[in-house]
Amino acid sequence: MQIQFLGATGTVTGSKYLLRSPAAAGSVLVDCGLFQGYKQLRLRNWEPLPVPAADISAIVLTHAHIDHSGYLPLLVRQGFRGRIYCSAATRDLCGILLPDSGGLQEEEAEFANRHGISKHQPALPLYTREDAVRCLEQFEPVPWHTDFQPVPWLTARLSHAGHMPGGSVVRMDDGQRSIVFSGDLGRPNDPVLRAPEPLPASDYLVVESTYGDRLHPTTDPFEQLAEVINRTSARGGTLVIPAFAVGRAQTLLHGIALLKQHRRIHNLPVYLNSPMAADALQVYRHHRPELRLSAAECDALCEAAHIVRTPDESRTLNARKGPMVLIAGSGMATGGRVIHHIQQFAPDRRNTILLVGFQAGGTRGASLAAGAATVRIHGEDVPVRAEVSRIDALSAHADAAEIEAWLRTAPQPPRRTFITHGEPPAADALRQRIERKLHWAVTVPDYLQSVTLD
């Protein structure tokens, strides 16, 4: 068996891992994500893959986030005709996320053409909503803890990774050796999702390292959320929260519902300005066995905000006066409706922009986190006078100690562990931690590197 790292090396985006065997026909791609962040990374989305799409036999997804699934519509358009295997919740969420991604790219291309702010004439979307809808026909949900064969020579099985509904750890076995992919590993004490299951036995392991160089704060994130809401409310300001539509938005709504229930914040209006996040609420309800929440808690989460559906409603929010809370995508302020809110509310000192997740280098979120005096939106340098605050304890990714604890659940050490899906400092810090504390053989692979699993 050979593995080639087609993404998520030196970055937290673009996850793609190709498995093939010189002794058998057919190859499998584990995850199929978009690159995000720095322009040189995003340009990779426009480059052809090193392997023709038609030569890939099947895809197995760990979960639905766009950095793991967002390249699928393009791959299908390029000629991929195989099945896309994943958990049922991942299929349901991809049915929301992928068409939205295609529609967003169409909107951004149209906006660039209308305002003449693109170097390309005309600006084109990477793929369309129609492309995304078409690729959904190739999805095939598989049950948890059940063997399936994406290609005849390879047996696969999914177990729970946490992180988001449907989040999976994927184990592959060719009869002689096995490899496990962590996907994005959730946290043992996530307020909404159940903890990841123990690491299955394997000869090789590919593990994420998003927070491989740090520990999450031990403070109560909902107490921090209450403080930010109350502080902004007292100024008569608006709290703008860029949030991933699936995962972070729902955790925030759960926290707000609890804070209102216990009267730790005023009963101020809360708006969820993300049709995608609103649709995802129904997936949470449908897959509640994957959550820690009771039926009543799940209902409270789903009813904690006013849902904003149309662009006109979104524009109306920009004309409203605070106090209020606006939750909108995207989580790193790379696109979506939240950038219009940042453009409107960032120049006013009464307001707050609250960052509640990882901010990849090169994104607007990373610029805000670094204290930028301005952010560039639609060709304009927007002054940032609003308070910029962070809550890192809301992360849905395991931190360095939580990753280590999960690795210690392995029945025996893998022969080699590959560290991916992390910025270089995080990946190298996790490498050192594993070598020092677990004494495992560890590699941080390079982009496009191929390794034979002997």
Under the CATH scheme, which class of the largest domain? Answer: Alpha Beta
Mean pLDDT: 95
Question: How many alpha or pi helices?
Answer: 14
Number of strands: 22
C-alpha termini separation: 7 Å
Say which CATH homologous superfamily of the largest domain is assigned.
Ribonuclease Z/Hydroxyacylglutathione hydrolase-like
Beta-strand fraction estimate: 15-25%
3D shape: globular
User: How many separate structural domains?
Assistant: 2
As residue ranges, the low-confidence spans are: none
What's the CATH topology name of the largest domain? Metallo-beta-lactamase, Chain A
Give the structural class: alpha/beta
Q: Give me the Rg, rounded.
A: 21 Å
Estimate percent helicity.
Answer: 25-40%
* Widest sheet, order of strands: 6-5-4-3-2-1-22
Tell me about the largest β-sheet. Answer: 7 strands, mixed
CATH structural architecture of the largest domain: 4-Layer Sandwich
